[in-house]
From TrEMBL:
Domain of life: Bacteria
Protein keywords: DNA-binding, Transcription, Transcription regulation
CDD domains listed in its UniProt record: PBP2_CrgA_like (cd08422)
Protein name: HTH lysR-type domain-containing protein
GO molecular function: DNA-binding transcription factor activity; sequence-specific DNA binding
Assigned protein family: Belongs to the LysR transcriptional regulatory family.
A matching Pfam family: HTH_1
InterPro entries: LysR-type_TF_proteobact-type, LysR_HTH_N, LysR_subst-bd, WH-like_DNA-bd_sf, WH_DNA-bd_sf
GO biological process: DNA-templated transcription
């Protein structure tokens, strides 16, 4: 601790001595021995190299330096008390704002249904949702928690696998009646395919796995229709615009009601991609972000597994 820091730590005691009018009363107020209070004031004077109090048998009086210190640090005791209260509150009742980022369709189907419960558990936490199908930099965009698919590069972020993404090929019944149902991924070159595309990547190579083989290969598909939004990609497929390659779990509502039909199911790669719940490193993370991350880590896996 530097000299200035040590001086700063002793100033609230000087305020207490002057406020109470004596070492004895200050010691009583602080629940300390009188000798401890006197010793700490002497330590302050030693650090300053000058006395801060004129001591007589009847009274204590500030020196000129003591008066200047008292004036300069007038709001310090109140500030320190408020900081202590803030820290105590942060330890007992999480509060503040937590920003959560997720892909649009995943957020609508898996994250939004959990928000009411989160708000009931932590009413002092404000939740800010950001739905974006593009890659998001957590630090640059002040995001506390994110949900991402795939294997992530090493980073300072904390990651927990909460599920796995199994892809499928799908199209509307009317589209298939017009263009025919493909029986092999290589036939996708003759079909209308709806591609997910962001400024940094184009997903126009669709992985597939031949029957009874371990090797995963890919087929390049035409990118005449692209979008950077997964929900829009689903809607385009529902409206007969072509075939999509998307998350099987997220497509279940439309597969079950018949608006979409799965095709090439025998060629979907067996290897699944992990769905990961990310949070910034503990040293930079607020208590509010920690409790929300931990709660989502408990709530999202059952929902992704279809248990909710």
């Amino acid at each position: 601790m530097s000299i200035n820091q040590r001086i700063l730590s002793l100033l609230p005691l000087l305020h207490q001595v002057i406020e109470q009018g004596s070492f004895q009363q200050a010691a009583k107020q602080l629940h300390l021995p009188r000798s401890s209070v006197s010793k700490k004031i002497m330590q302050l004077e030693a650090l300053l190299g000058q006395p801060v109090l004129h001591r007589t048998t009847r009274q204590l009086r500030l020196t000129e330096l003591g008066e200047e210190l008292l004036s300069l640090s007038h709001g310090l005791p109140t500030l320190l008390t408020e900081i202590d209260s803030l820290l105590d509150s942060a330890q007992t009742t999480p509060s503040g704002t937590v920003k959560i980022s997720s892909a649009t369709l995943f957020g609508q189907q898996a994250l939004i249904p959990e928000i009411k419960a989160l708000r009931a558990l932590y009413p002092n936490i404000a939740i800010q949702l950001s739905f974006d199908d593009s890659f998001t930099d957590l630090i640059a965009q002040n995001i506390d928690i994110a949900i991402r698919v795939g294997h992530l590069p090493d980073s300072q972020q904390v990651a927990k696998i909460i599920g796995h993404k199994q892809r499928c090929f799908a199209a509307s019944p009317h589209y298939l009646s017009l263009w025919g149902r493909p029986t092999h991924p290589k036939q996708l070159a003759q079909h209308q395919c709806i591609i997910f595309k962001t400024p940094s990547s184009t997903h126009d190579h669709w992985a597939f796995q031949e029957k009874d083989q371990d090797t995963v290969t890919s087929a390049k598909v035409s990118s005449t229709l692209t979008t950077d939004d997964v929900r829009s990609m689903v809607d385009l497929a529902r409206l007969d615009n072509g075939i999509i390659y998307a998350d099987l779990t997220l497509l279940q509502p439309w597969l079950q009601n018949g608006e979409l039909i799965e095709v090439l199911s025998d060629y979907v790669p067996a290897k699944q991609e992990p769905i990961q719940l990310l949070c910034i490193g503990r040293s930079s993370r607020s208590r509010a972000a920690t409790v929300i991350w931990e709660e989502l880590a408990k709530r999202l896996p059952p929902r992704l597994a279809g248990e909710n």
